[in-house]
Specification:
The strands form seven sheets. This protein has a six-stranded mixed sheet with strand order 17-26-25-24-20-23. It has a four-stranded antiparallel sheet with strand order 1-8-6-3, with no helix packed on it. It has a four-stranded antiparallel sheet with strand order 5-4-2-7, with no helix packed on it. Helices cover 27% and strands 26% of the residues. The chain contains eleven helices and 26 strands. It folds into four domains: 99 residues, RNA polymerase II/Efflux pump adaptor protein, barrel-sandwich hybrid domain (OB fold (Dihydrolipoamide Acetyltransferase, E2P), Beta Barrel), CATH 2.40.50; 79 residues, RNA polymerase II/Efflux pump adaptor protein, barrel-sandwich hybrid domain (OB fold (Dihydrolipoamide Acetyltransferase, E2P), Beta Barrel); 65 residues, Dihydrolipoamide Transferase, CATH 4.10.320; 216 residues, Chloramphenicol acetyltransferase-like domain (Chloramphenicol Acetyltransferase). The N and C termini lie far apart (88 Å). The chain is α+β, with helices and mostly antiparallel strands.
């Protein structure tokens, strides 16, 4: 029976492949382990061997041509076998599969009447960017009486873990997700209604309705065909195996891999493939000459075992990845790096903190200085929209805070109008509550500019990705003591490096540079912020 051979995925990032050369022609006999073709991937040119025996009946991709992974590459079968149905029937098979699955969906999602008093509770959208949520914990169990306003569960969103209260009274009849499980917004979360009500059909119908469409999409991607199993990729440029006489040993990549795993010396194996090539079955049938020889050879085989742990992505991590990728690849970033003299700032902070019950940080000074500079340079405090630029007259500074699952950005509202101690108290409060996931979405929305400070970790300089829809983000490094030139003399000074990442659509280079000059004046002479 004919076997369809598809373009294999020969690397983890491969999406398509190019046939560099065919080593077999239509009509040639194929043995298991024979090299069919050389495939050029995104990483290297690799040999692709056959796991089937028969005759090469069809080649679907010519030398130099490129096709997607899983697309038709070749067909192997019995000599003279009719393969026209395989070549011409793909569209018909896909269409038929689509019709069949549509009928399955229509049959599955039949209308089920919801009993009186029963309310289906779905996964709520608890933030503007939330697409799915995870049940951190249930505060009610099935069978518990629920009053309007009772907290049903704690839901982990992309931004925080939040309490979800009931807007209905009744008995908790059904729970659709267990603690730790995730679901899309509007998927079934729970069912509340009169005690003793049978809601099994309601729950079952809701689940089918929510999943049937996605199931069809998976089923009709392509007609189901048997595909070739791909051997571990072996780069063509890899050094050839040699025997004791320095002559090359011809072996398939799979045979080499199995031999390495079993500790078999290929020079001791006789090949039965084409031109004496060693294939898979030769390794499987190999019997060592003597146990002592095998034991001697085995000591050269690594005995370690590869190991790894898998950590499921949190909702926060998923959204961070999505939003940062969108920002990096949609906003044309450029970077302006500066180094400020911090001697006056150090002295200013020492004097300020000498006031009883007052303590400010260098980060507080940077936040205040940025806020004042942004008022003078509104273009840096802007947002890019499809048909216009939005110049914000208010200044809301986002301060990046590292948490276990990633990064959150609480916002200091109207930062230019707040005093240094007010800014310090707000940032400290936000940082504490961010790490315990107690920030509200409102406290993380609305920033017009963002500051990311890694100075406390000893990082001297770095670049950040813009926190859209902001037009810029400032990366703040540590204060470093080093030799500097002042008044023509080399003296010990304190400096701090800052890097401004700008969206070139809204902030031109000169505009960004002017902002940094204004910022330099405030930070190097902090007393001017109090005037």
């Amino acid at each position: 029976m004919a076997e369809i051979i598809t373009m294999p995925r020969l690397s983890d990032t491969m999406e398509e492949g190019t046939v560099a050369s065919w080593l077999k022609n239509v009509g040639d006999k194929i043995e298991e382990g024979d090299i069919l073709a050389e495939i050029e991937t995104d990483k290297a040119t690799m040999e692709f061997e056959s796991f089937h025996e028969g005759t090469l009946l069809h080649i679907g991709v010519q030398e130099g041509e490129t096709t997607k992974v899983d697309a038709l590459l070749a067909i192997i079968g019995d000599e003279g076998e009719d393969i026209s149905a395989l070549l011409n029937g793909n569209d018909a098979v896909a269409s038929e599969a689509n019709e069949e699955n549509t009928e399955v969906v229509e049959a599955a999602v039949e209308t089920v009447e919801v009993p009186d008093g029963v309310v289906v509770v779905t996964m709520p959208r608890l933030s503007d960017t939330m697409e799915e949520g995870t049940v951190a914990s249930w505060l009610k169990n099935v069978g518990d009486v629920v009053e309007e306003g009772d907290i049903l569960a704690e839901i982990e969103t992309d931004k925080a873990t939040m309490e979800f209260e009931s807007f209905n009274a009744g008995t908790l009849l059904y729970v659709g997700l267990q603690a730790g499980e995730s679901a899309k917004v509007d998927d079934l979360l729970a069912i509340i209604g009169p005690a003793g009500t049978d809601v099994s059909k309601v729950a079952s119908n809701f689940s089918v309705a929510g999943t049937a469409e996605s199931a069809v999409k998976e089923e009709v991607k392509a007609p189901k065909v048997e595909t070739v199993k791909v051997a571990e990729p072996v780069k063509q440029a890899a050094p050839a195996v040699t025997n004791s006489t320095n002559g090359r040993i011809f072996a398939s990549p799979l045979a080499k891999k199995i031999a390495e795993e079993k500790g078999i010396d290929l020079s001791q194996v006789s090949g039965t493939g084409e031109n004496g090539r060693i294939v898979k079955k030769d390794i499987e049938n190999y019997k060592p000459v003597a146990a002592s020889a095998t034991a001697s050879m085995a000591k050269f085989v690594p005995s370690g075992q590869e190991d790894f742990d898998e950590v499921k992505h949190s909702q926060m991590r998923k959204v961070i990845a999505k939003r940062l990728s969108e920002s990096k690849f949609t906003a044309p970033h450029y970077y302006l790096a500066v180094e400020f003299d911090m001697d006056n700032a150090i002295a200013f902070r020492q004097q300020f903190n000498s006031i009883p019950d007052t303590k400010i940080s260098f980060n507080d000074i940077v936040v205040k200085a940025c806020a004042l500079a942004l008022k003078l340079h509104p273009q840096v405090n802007s947002q890019w929209l499809d048909d216009r630029m939005k110049l914000n007259n208010h200044v809301h500074v986002g301060v990046a805070v590292a948490v276990e699952d990633g990064l959150v950005v609480p916002v200091v509202k109207f930062a230019n109008e707040q005093s240094l101690p007010q800014i310090g108290a707000a940032v400290k409060d936000y940082a504490v509550r961010a790490r315990s996931k107690k920030l509200t979405p409102q406290e993380m929305d609305g920033s017009t500019f963002t500051i990311s400070n890694l100075g406390m970790f000893g990082i001297e300089s770095f670049t950040s990705i813009i926190n859209q829809p902001n037009s810029a983000i400032l990366s703040v490094g540590s204060i470093v003591q080093k030799p500097v030139v002042k008044n023509g003399q080399i003296v010990v000074g304190n400096t701090m490096k800052l890097t401004l990442a700008c969206d070139h659509r809204t902030v031109d280079g000169a505009t960004g540079a002017q902002f940094l000059q204004t910022l330099k004046g405030f930070i190097e002479n902090p007393v001017t912020m109090l005037v």
